[in-house]
Each structure stands twice: as C-alpha cells, then as structure tokens.
Amino acid sequence: MTSWAFRALEFSAALFIFLLGSLVLIVLVLYLRDITQTQQAIRRNYPVLGRFRYWFEHMGEFFRQYFFALDREEMPFNRAQRSWVYRAAKNLDSTVAFGSTRPLNQPGDIIFLNCLLPTLKEDAVPPEPIHFGQRVCRQPYTTSSFFNISGMSFGALSVPAVRALSLGAAKAGIWMNTGEGGLSPYHLEGGGDIVFQIGTAKYGVRDAEGRLSDERLRAVAAHQEVKMFELKLSQGAKPGKGGILPGEKVTAEIAAIRGIPEGKDSISPNGHPEIRSVDDLLDMIEHIRDVTGKPVGFKAVLGGTAWLEELGQLIHQRGNSSAPDFITLDSADGGTGAAPQSLMDYMGLPIRRSLPLLVAWRQRFGLEQRIRIIASGKLINPSDVAWALCVGADVVTSARGFMFALGCIQALQCNKNRCPTGITTHDPKLQKGLVVSDKSDRVAQYATNLMYEVGVIAHSCGVKGPHQLSPLHAMVIDDHGLPVPLADQLPPTPDKRPPGA
Question: pLDDT digit string (tens) for 282-319?
Fold first, then answer.
C-alpha cells in the first residue's frame, strides 16, 4: 500500500512539473509572438496580458445580455421582446405581474385605444381572407394568415432549421418564404405554402450564365406548394448590396441547389442587370407571372420615393393587370447574417416611416384592391403586428421572430458558421442541438399565439377582427413624450372611421 501511494505521489509530481513546464512554454511562445507582431499595439506593448483585452471584448457581448442589460435596452432585440417570443413558442403563460416595465413616454412608441364596449368573444370573427392576383393570375392565391415567415435562405440557415420552419408553417397554416437561396427539399418537407424568392443572383432559377431561366421557373412553379414568387430588389440590412454567404457555408448540397461552385463565397449582385428602370421592373413581373401563372410581387427597402410616383403612373398607363400582386416592404433595421455596417446602420428608411408612405401611395393611386402590402422588419410581437395592420399593411412577415422561436439566443454569430443553437451553422455537432420535431411545434405555437393576441388587441379596440384595425385605433408618443393620434402622424389618407372608434 505504501509503495502504491509513493508511486502515485511521484506520478502526480511529474504530471504537475510537466503541466507547469508546458504552461511556461506556452506563455513564452505567446510572449515572443506578441512582441514580434506589428498588427496590434496592445499585444506588442503588453505581451500575453494584452490578449485578455480582446477576449474580454468578445465575451462582453454575452455578459451584457445576461448580467448587465435591462429588460428593454438591448439591441437589436431586447430581453422583453425575446422573452415574449420564447413564451409564445413554448405555449407558456404570457401574462406578467405587478405592472408593465415599458415606459409610456418614449418617442415613437405606440399606444392602442381601447373601446368602452369591447368586442365580445362570441362576436369576434376569424381573420379575413387575403387575396393575391385574383382575376389576373391563372393560379391566384388566397390565405387567411396575416403573419408569416419572411425570407431566410437555405445556406444561411441549416438543414434542421429549414425543416423545422417548413413543418411548423404547415401546422400553423402560414406561408414560408424561401429566401434567395433557392428551393430545397427541406422547404417542401412540411407540405405548407411556399413563397419563392428570386434574388439578384437568380439562385435556383438561373442558367449557366446566371440569367433567369424560364425552364427552371416552370419547374419551381410546378410544385403545388409554391404559391407566389417574390422578386427581391433589396433587403433591410443592406439595401444596395446583394446577399453574402461565406464560402465555408457553401456545402456541396447548397452549391447544387443554388447552381454555384462549392466552397466559394456566394455573393449576389447588388441589383438585377435586367431591371434598370421601373418599366423594366413591371416587364419582369409580367414575364414571371406569365411563365409561372402565379402571383408575383417584389421586395424592397424604401429610401428615395420618386420611383413610386413613376410606378403608379405606369400602372395606370399599362393597366392594373400590369401591377405587382404584392409589395413586400422591408425596414432599414431588418436583419441578415452578414452585411457592411455602413449599410446596416445608415441606409434606408425604417418601417415606421416607410410603411405609411407606401400605404398612402397605394391609396392615392386607387390600388388598394389590386396590390397587397406585406410589412417586414423587426415586427416580432403582437403590438408590432397590430401597428402595421393599423397603418394599412395586409400581411406581416418576420424572419428573426421565427429564429427566436427556433431557439436563437441573439449570439450574433450568424455569419461565422458557429451558431450555438444550430440555426445558422452547417457544423453537425452544433446542429444536433436543434431537434426538428420540438422546434417545429414551437414555430407553429409562436405564429398561432401571436395572431391570437393581435386579435385580443383588435377586440379591445372594439373591432371584430385584426383587419378592421385602422389609424384611429392607436396613438403615438411624440417628441415631447405625449400621445398624439396616429392618424395625425401619417400622410393624408381617406377618412375611414372604423366600428368602435
């Protein structure tokens, strides 16, 4: 026994000396590397110790979220916003106690106006049908879902994430937008409605030279799940720049679906070469509609507005049948996995400003029954969606809301292929944490609970359903911290006094 204990002691001492020596050697190597490198002054002046500065800087992103930030001060989404989505996705109690933590004097915030005699439960009506391309398309589309999944490409998202979204969308009866990365088998797996997005690189519907292929368009349209086509001109986080998918995320499968080389950065052009004018835009929309027989619209971020006037005039000249069946309006604070900060921070109008402008344009040209407006960009809670409906949107779509439903923790690693929740990575070790059967239920529950709570807001305002909400049902906090009628903050529109106002 004594001999065994002595040998164990000798081994422990040898192991300690080895580990200590290894540590000294590592520190020496780091020291030599730091004092000889010329890129970072901190490491050169404070070798080894200076490295902690960069580690602390990186870890600060995560510590702020859990230990230091208040419930409503984080960006791009605060803890209160995320927590509501998490509870809704898990079908947990979404009530809170002791009063709201939301200040009621922040400029731009919305307050809904409750009615003295709210709509009773037995008088409530289900969401109204929303028609796209009626009397224009060979295969028009009708849905009653006013909250749907916005464009997120396969490639930017992992296989299990796309599968969970597809299955969840079908369970909730909502549509799923493919994003610009093409149509994969995983989009079709759930059997739900699909909106196929055509980006500037024409992924999935391009020929060998990268031009739009009518043959491939017909092949995509042949899927009964594909209900509409969306021509993407620009997106919120990077208007004026195309999609970016780092080469490490371009797997063989993604390359085959997109029609691009494997392992190389997938960078879309910043615009469609075939569309250099508003006339060209209408020509392209009509061409895609003629080839597919299905409703076609476009997605854009609003910046300059002169083109809207030209668009309205051209539609009247060419006839209402030439109009897009819908316009998806993205916000300047929309999201993406990778974008230049100069565009993400400073380019384009936020949805709070651009949506009222687009709605007023549609009314001014008498296109309310012809063009549907889809609002997108940071609209992830019931109050956000209800606001958009008040202003005049027909439909709201969300990408990041459904990412939270999948389990996103806002780790801000979307562009680095090491998403800790398996949503935006192609690393199998990280993807295994995303269990499709569980997350698809959460996707469906999030959408269902959100639309239910929008209905609750509508009934409190005295109307029977969400689509009866109008600007007269809300107020907005002005720069002095006082609520003023939302209608007074919008461009002039016809006076429509809703029930219960």
Answer: 999 999 999 999 999 999 999 888 999 999 999 999 99
Give yes or no for a cis peptide into 350 (omega within 30° of 0). Answer: no
Question: Are the C-beta atoms of 71 and 78 separated by less than 8 Å?
Answer: yes
Peptide bond into 185 cis (omega under 30): no
Signed CA dihedral, 491, 495, 498, 501: sign only: positive
Which contiguous run of DSSP H or E holds residue 330? strand 326-330
pLDDT at residue 173, as a whole number: 97
Report the distance separating Cα 189 and Cα 182, nearest Å.
15
Gap between the Cα atoms of 311 and 284, Å rounded: 13
Distance, CA of 13 to CA of 22 (rounded, Å): 14
| Distance, C-alpha 9 to centroid of its chain | 59
Helix/strand/coil for 29: helix
- What is the per-residue DSSP string for 84-118? HHHHHHTT------SS--S-S--TT-EEE---SSP
Exposure string over 328-352, b if 16+ CB within 10 A, otherwise e: bbbbbbbbbbbbeeebbeebbbbbb
Nearest to 443 by CA among 87, 169, 86, 159: 169
Torsion of CA 482, 486, 492, 496, to 10 degrees: -140
Select from 169, 168, 234, 161 the least CA-distant residue to 195: 169
Q: Which residue type does 353 have?
A: R
Provide the pLDDT for residue 345: 66
DSSP calls for 388-401? HHHHT-SEEEESHH
Q: Which residue has the tokens 């999944």?
A: 149
Residues 6+ apart with CB under 8 A from 370: 320, 323, 325
Q: Which alpha helices (H) appear in 365-435, and where do they start and end?
A: 382-391, 400-406, 428-431
Pairing of strands 395-398, 372-376: parallel
Q: How far is CA 71 from CA 64, 387, 490, in A?
A: 11, 22, 30
Of 415, 378, 419, whose CA–CA distance to 400 is shortest? 378
DSSP state of 491: P
Q: Is 230 helix (H, G, I), strand (E, B) or coil?
A: strand
Cα distances from 70 to residues 74, 77, 103, in angstroms, run 7, 12, 13
Amino acid letter, 33? R
Tell which residue, 269, 186, 80, 118, has the closest CA to residue 440.
186
The CA distance from 139 to 216, in Å, is: 18
Q: Which residues pair with 266 in a beta bridge?
A: 245
Predicted TM-score (pTM) of the model is: 0.84
pLDDT of residue 376: 93
Q: Between 12 and 384, where is the model more confident? A: 384
Spell out the SS3 assignment of 137-206: CCCCEEECCCEEECCCCECCECHHHHHHHHHHHHHHCCEEECCCCCCCHHHHCCCCEEEEEECCCCCCCE
**pLDDT tens readout for residues 434-456:** 889 999 999 999 999 999 999 99
Q: Name the residue with higher pLDDT: 492 or 128.
A: 128
